[in-house]
Amino acid sequence: MEPIPLPSHVHYELLLQLLERQTLSAVQHTLPQRAQVHELVITLRKALSQQKQIEETCQRQNIPVDYRWSLNTVAAELPISDILKSS
Q1: Is the Cα dihedral 8, 9, 11, 14 positive or negative?
Q2: Residue 79 pLDDT > 70
Q3: pTM for the predicted model, two decimal places
Q4: What is the per-residue DSSP string for the chain?
């Protein structure tokens, strides 16, 4: 069975740290934007939680997961002739 590609957890962590450490402090005095950023943080935490549920389901069903760092990972693994054919 083909591994299921999923984002690496570091992507969520990077976004969350940026939003919590920098964005929230930048919008500290503007309540509408602060509320929007807070909702975005909540949404990202939910997305990470949902991804972990998918991972647990895959693990129980012995389905491999391939954590991706980039969209380019697949292209980098293909021979150049295959990449040119798909262009």
Answers
A1: negative
A2: no
A3: 0.74
A4: -PPEEEE-HHHHHHHHHHIIIIIHHHTTT-HHHHHHHHHHHHHHHHHHHHHHHHHHHHHHTT--EEEES-THHHHHHS-HHHHHHH-
